[in-house]
Amino acid sequence: MSDASHEVTLSEGLATTRSIRRYLPEPIPEDVLRDILFGATRAPSGSNRQPFRFMVFTDTEKSKQVKALIAQGAQTLWNFKRANDGYDAGSGSEENSPKTRMANTMENYVENFAEVPVLVLAILLRYRDPNPMEGASVYPACQNVLLAARAKGYGGVLTGFHGYVTKELHELLQFPENAFIAATITLGKPAGSHGPVRRVPMNQLVYGDTWGEGASWAIDPDGTAVMKGR
Ligand SMILES: Cc1cc2nc3c(=O)[nH]c(=O)nc-3n(C[C@H](O)[C@H](O)[C@H](O)COP(=O)(O)O)c2cc1C
């Protein structure tokens, strides 16, 4: 991989790969795309079958069509979520609350979705009936996309924005029948900065031998940005 000397460590990358939804209006060079997608293709899968495929849309005519199509899906989904998840209720009416900031970020993301620098579709090629484990053969590869992008100073976010337009995408891209669209990932150079992910303290998520009891050693490293609760 190029530029290795400037990369963050793996541990640092794990703690700072948060969703990036605002991008500078610049393309991702092909050698960087190569490195990011190489990372994706190194992911594990059940029996090492590697049933994941990626389509990468940049600035070709077809890419623009795909971005525009999924932008419609994004708008539909966000309108639904905004109303349904009460984004405008409670602290959503306060100017600078986390809820309001999230709503503004989403609004901006969805509005500019058709112009994202790169859009990646992650596909699972089903080789048997759907089962609860099948996502585990494609989502690790998706996370690798985000981690590898982070390593190169780029960022992105995994979304389900294709959900409302899967039929149209199947037609436009002539997917085989067993292709399941697992994720839409957008990528680009962050307009803001990378920063620590915010999660609840690890002892709320990691138990020892007793259900519900944080393991005694499950202590966040000093300086970890934690959420008070969910
Ligand atoms: C399964 C899954 C589905 C997601 N779907 C969306 C989505 O449709 N739109 C979006 O903007 N972000 C989506 N996200 C990103 C999450 O909102 C984000 O990871 C979460 O809020 C934590 O924030 P962080 O990644 O910045 O730490 C999704 C993430 C996952 C893992």
List the secondary-structure elements in sequence, H or E: HHEHHEHEHE
What share of residues are in beta strands? 5-15%
| Tally of helical runs | 6
Structural class per helix/strand content?
alpha+beta
Full CATH superfamily name of the largest domain = NADH Oxidase
Question: Any ligands, ions or cofactors bound here, and which?
Answer: flavin mononucleotide
- Strand order in the largest sheet: 1-2-4-3
Describe the structure.
It holds the Pfam family Nitroreductase. The chain is of the alpha+beta class and 230 residues long. It has 2 domains: 191 residues, NADH Oxidase (3-Layer(aba) Sandwich); 33 residues, no CATH class. The protein contains 6 helices and 4 strands; from the N terminus they run H-H-E-H-H-E-H-E-H-E. The chain has a 4-stranded antiparallel sheet with strand order 1-2-4-3. Helix 2 runs antiparallel to helix 5 and helix 3 runs antiparallel to helix 4. The mean pLDDT is 94. Flavin mononucleotide binds next to strand 3.
